[in-house]
Amino acid sequence: MQNLLEQLKDKRSPKRRSAAKKLRKMSNVEAGPYLLDALEKEIKDVRTWETQYQIIMALGECGYTKALPFLIRLSDKYFEATMIYMALGDSIVRLSKQHENDASPAINLLDSGNESLADGALRAVAMLRMQPNREQTSAILEFVSSSSLNEGIRFWVIAAAPGWEGDDVKHFLEQCRNSSREEFKDAAELALKKKYRKWHPL
């Protein structure tokens, strides 16, 4: 891992990005301080948003909770590259949850007014296969049900739903089967069968 930590300081952004991706897969909390230090420098260059995305994702997946205040501050800033918000939403949920099925951090981000931030938060719920309580699932469904059948904000809720219970969950998934987007239909069919699919986000 030491070589990857050193690579985070490379002069070339693709090299730094590659190191962050590999550290993300390792999910080692000991990389956290180095990733946070790298992000504080990286975030100043708007050209390297892809590298910023990978560092933020790595912080979330390695469970470095000390990065949370900085990530929350970033979520209020303006970024032209909206993928940064998606990574922030994902990592903030991972680092804020109090237990494995705690979707409250995601629900809090739904009220941000930033769809990319909300989308990232819902992606974390799906990727972690959370099974929130009924109150939380209802809040999530209420939020996304106001969107059209083809809007992207629905996707990660469909992907998260195999482990959820309730008539409102079933109704939502049956509704999503009428989307014109094939990935929505396929995910909804799987969810209705209580089957998870392995997703591979960027």
UniProtKB/TrEMBL annotation:
Extract the ranges annotated as region (Disordered).
1-22
Q: Which InterPro entries match?
A: ARM-like, ARM-type_fold
Q: Where is the composition biased (Basic residues)?
A: 12-22
Membrane-crossing ranges are none
Provide the protein name.
HEAT repeat domain-containing protein
Record organism = Thalassotalea mangrovi
